[in-house]
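Letters spell out the chain; the tokens describe the backbone. To illustrate:

===
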Amino acid sequence: MFHAIMRSSIGDAHTLAQLDSLSRTIWQAHSAETVTDAEAQSRAELLHACRSAVRKAVVPVGIPLGHVTLFPPKRLQQAPERSVAIEHRRRLACSGPMPPALASRFTTGQLADLRIVGDEMARNGACGLCIDAIAARAGVCHLLAQAAIRLAEGDGLLTIQERRHQGRKSDPNVVQIISRE
């Protein structure tokens, strides 16, 4: 009687949780000595075969592999070599049009960043480059570039217009120089 019920129950099970429950029942019956070793083993093998079939039918939930995302992968821009970046940074900082009174408040890397922003401002009327692009052109890290722009904004030398978009990727901020110096 127990064997027929277990065989039909194993055939009717459609989830892994049901199969686990049946497996527990079989081994509890074996420990209570109502089922022999051979019978418990044959039922366990049948459960294992059913588990494999159920696992093959399970479809993963979420984004399928190879799914194209809305946003392209982020490509970090970096300077080619440290010594080249240092030399380039110093050249940019020294050749910048910032007066010495203002330049004394900034480091060499920050001056190089502000020079890139000034060049873009002269070329396009405003700097619409992202922080990574400014940092790569100046030969510094993106955190230093971001800090330099925020410091200059705090000193009243430039303004930052944020271009946020709700629910999608934001555009780079627009930086405009407002100081005559």
